[in-house]
Specification:
Two copies of one chain form a homodimer. Helices cover 34% and strands 13% of the residues of chain A. Chain A has one domain: Rossmann fold. Chain A is built from eight helices and six strands. By secondary structure, chain A is α/β, with parallel strands linked by helices.
Chain lengths: 237, 237
């Protein structure tokens, strides 16, 4: 497999970075090719703007997704976007590796999503969810957070973590057609012992060595909806 | 009321900007004080990093939230963060005004959340949800998106929009103690007529003129959980 790991953490020696290194080591040991986009180290620009396009469909008025489509066709996307897009298209597996900030991705990583998942390639028209432009590839989210495990789940104070991660898991990764594997989560990281961290790393290694057995999360399929994207009646499915 | 409107859109003449202007005009006409943080116009830096602290609790290893707490106490937060924080503390109502990118906020706005909602003031320890540091203030999210209204809701292809916005509505705004009003949503914006846009503006104006009647969305209260944040049994509530 070709693997693209996108990593975003402001501390180079963070435990999130240890998860990144564990993934690289484990996946390479299994014979996979791995590329890492370390967004802080790259000084990645997370801001979607008119500067992302060297030619414009409409120079007077920016509709970002429309300009992405032209940029793809005419190969006039900004160089930093095109490089990440090339890595993404090369990859069979995308790993997003980050600390949970406000129950979602740090702005640095959100800006990778905003700029790299371009309309016209990753999605467009009726190409989304199971018909998305990146179908056939897989995605894994690996996250660290401060909260304890019992604060998440049905009836817990924050509800299920998967519900908080919905815009990423469903609204982004599944939307562009990726098979989204259940997230890997390291809980309570700033407060735990070195031994507990080692246990998370060992557990992540084992998870990565057996990724082939993971079942993707279920999401809507376009065949469940009509041409106007209204739900088909249950009895006609 | 004092109102802080945080706006993030890469096109200065966007319909999202028209919503911003409508809000300013309507609220001022009602006698409210309004400040606008136009993040693209300000060239806001959305990247949380070590540069955000001129003094460090631990110069060797960055734990962002811990450094925020010191920065608050010793007034060593970066000037751009402190300015936004001062506006936030001045405000009785926070409006986040943005186009939906990937079912969430553009990185530009996410980076305002990451950097400005500092630990030690906005939350910390057991001060979150109804005990959050910003309790007593209100929040309103006003968004534009490309999708049609029937694509959202129970059974719809994307599910309820409120579920997609959960990390913002619950995980961010309610987490810091704000009373979160139901979002204002302008659907299908890139594809609709000028008249349809005017209708959204009129409807937004009416909504803003009657904000006092809006009931906040219900979220967990800390009194429903024990000291370890485990849920109390239903019959002991």
């Amino acid at each position: 497999m070709n693997v693209l790991l996108v990593h975003a953490h402001p501390e180079p020696r963070s435990f999130t970075a240890a998860l990144r290194d564990q993934a690289v080591e484990t996946l390479q040991a299994q014979g996979h090719q791995v590329q890492v986009s370390d967004l802080y180290a790259m000084d990645w620009n997370p801001v979607a703007s008119a500067d992302d396009f060297s030619a414009r469909e409409n120079p007077e008025y920016l509709v970002y997704a429309l300009e992405q489509r032209l940029g793809v066709k005419s190969q006039t996307l900004a160089a930093d976007i095109q490089q990440e897009l090339d890595k993404l298209l090369w990859a069979d597996l995308l790993i997003l590796n980050f600390p949970i900030y406000w129950f979602s991705a740090p702005a640095m990583l959100k800006g990778w999503i905003d700029r790299v998942l371009v309309s016209g390639i990753c999605y467009g028209g009726k190409r989304f969810y199971d018909q998305g432009g990146l179908r056939g590839k897989k995605a894994l989210v690996s996250v660290t957070l401060g909260g304890r495990e019992h604060m998440f789940g049905e009836g817990a104070i924050h509800g299920p973590l998967e519900d908080m991660l919905r815009p990423i898991l469903r609204g982004t990764l599944a939307y562009v057609g990726l098979d989204v594997l259940p997230p890997f989560v390291a809980w309570h990281v700033p407060y735990i012992s070195a031994e507990a961290r080692q246990e998370f790393l060992a557990s992540y290694q084992q998870r990565l060595e057996n990724l082939g057995q993971d079942q993707p999360i279920e999401f809507p399929r376009l065949s469940q909806f009509d041409d106007g994207l209204y739900p088909l009646a249950q009895n006609t499915r």
